[in-house]
Amino acid sequence: MEVGANVFFNSLGVNVGVKHFFSPAQRDFFVHGQGAYLFGVDGAGDNVGLLGLSGGYRFVGNSPLQFDLEAGIDVLLTPGSSTPVLAVPAVGLSVGYRF
């Protein structure tokens, strides 16, 4: 499980998500679901929700560094509406450190 803060264009937000690995060592292939709430996305200061679903691969070597490469789709929703405002492809690369 992950909890954090994010930036989407010029907006700040909070997010929660889950990654499920198909390997007990938490490496190789995974699926990732995430939900976020973004504050003040447009010039009118409207807030929006963001839902994301992606799949990816975690590269782990002998060092404590790990790299996640993922691709999927993000859907923006306005509060009080289930109609998507925008659906866009999403690609991400993240670097992590194993303790």
Sequence-ordered SSE layout with sheet pairings:
Blueprint: E1 2-8, E2 11-21, E3 28-39, E4 48-60, E5 65-77, E6 84-97
Antiparallel strand pairs: 1-2, 2-3, 3-4, 4-5, 5-6
Structure, briefly:
By secondary structure, the protein is mainly beta.
Q: Number of helix segments?
A: 0
Radius of gyration: 15 Å
Helix content: under 10%
Low-pLDDT segments, ≥5 res:
none
> What is the terminal separation in angstroms?
16 Å
How much of the polypeptide forms β-strand, as a percent range?
Answer: over 45%
Shape label: elongated
* Helix/strand/pairing category: mainly beta
- Order of strands across the main sheet: 1-2-3-4-5-6
Biggest sheet details: 6 strands, antiparallel
Order of helices and strands: EEEEEE
- Please provide the count of β strands: 6
Mean pLDDT: 85
How is this structure best described in words?
This protein is an all-beta fold. 0% of the residues lie in helices and 71% in strands. It is built from no helices and 6 strands. The chain has strands at residues 2-8, 11-21, 28-39, 48-60, 65-77, 84-97. It has a 6-stranded antiparallel sheet, with no helix packed on it.
Identify the notable features of this structure and list them briefly.
single chain; 99 residues; mainly beta; 6-stranded antiparallel sheet; 6 strands; elongated
